[in-house]
Amino acid sequence: MNKVAVIILNWNGAKLLRRYPPTVIAGTDTAIADVIVADNGSTDESLQVLKDEFPQVRGLKFDKNYGFSEGYNLAIKQTMYPYTVLLNSDVRTPRGWLNPLLD
């Protein structure tokens, strides 16, 4: 297990998943962190987008929309990493963005 979980909460955000997480995935050092998308009960094609376009991303599927805070809290409880970074679904990151934070 890596030291850091980078958790992105998603709810019906298939369009956002195609636009923003690719920079997070490309910019995150896989030797220290795992990118995780916690799906908050989406009813759009978000889960299929994750499966088809981002197989390297770990997905958490919730049975309903738990809202912003509770959704993130559930994801943190299910992942249990030493460190956790919470990102909104509309955030881009540059390469190596996480390494200075961990250092």
Quick overview:
With 103 residues, the protein is α/β, with parallel strands linked by helices. It has helices at 14-19, 21-27, 46-53, 68-79, 99-102, and strands at 4-10, 33-39, 58-61, 83-87. It has a four-stranded parallel sheet, sandwiched between helices.
Work out the helicity level.
25-40%
Query: Structural class, from secondary structure content?
Result: alpha/beta
Q: Roughly what is the average pLDDT, rounded to an integer?
A: 96
Order of helices and strands: EHHEHEHEH
Number of strands: 4
Q: How would you name the oligomeric state of the polypeptide chains in this document?
A: single chain
Largest sheet: 4 strands, parallel
Largest sheet strand order: 3-2-1-4
Principal-axis shape equals: globular
Number of helices: 5
